[in-house]
Amino acid sequence: xxxxxxxxxxxxxxxxxxxxxxxSCRGLDGEDNVLAVGYCGNCSYDPPMVMVGIVPSRxxxxxxxxSGCFVVNLVGKEYKETFDYLGSHSxxxxxxxxxxxxxxxxxxxxxxxxxxxxxxxxECTVVDSILTGSHEMFxxxxxxxHANEQIVxxxxxxxxxxxxxx
Length: 166
Fold this sequence. Notes:
By secondary structure, the chain is mainly β. Helices cover 13% and strands 37% of the residues. It has 3 helices and 9 strands. The protein has helices spanning 59-67, 80-88, 96-99, and strands at 21-26, 32-37, 40-45, 48-54, 69-74, 104-106, 113-115, 120-131, 136-147. The strands form 2 sheets. The protein has a 7-stranded antiparallel sheet with strand order 2-1-5-8-9-4-3. A two-stranded antiparallel sheet has the order 6-7. A hairpin with a 6-residue loop joins strand 6 and strand 7 (113-115).
């Protein structure tokens, strides 16, 4: 058996590919916001939970911390331009939701908006959080999952291969 030569690589965000999601939230004052999140993943199946990492200096951080909820929106390639815009602009500086013509609807179980143009929206209630260095990881208990009907089978399973992810 031949030995593969290895060399040290950069440690930052070395687990790839990372899911590219948009997290939507609502402040206690009713203001909606959306931010691009690179640190996101499943963390429990019983009960179903996901985690999202938010840098405390982000505009949405306080909204999620105070409201105790958020929505993870999975993004298809057809939404890449909007994803890139939302990920590179802050609502602190402009009404990026209006400028990007983002369509929002109220969540069914949590007081946060879902993004209508995303194929899957995962409503979550914050059950815990942990500071992990640069990010605070919010653990969200999944309260409801919305999915475009053409990607859901008769048993409610999502066929993720039918989503052309970024």
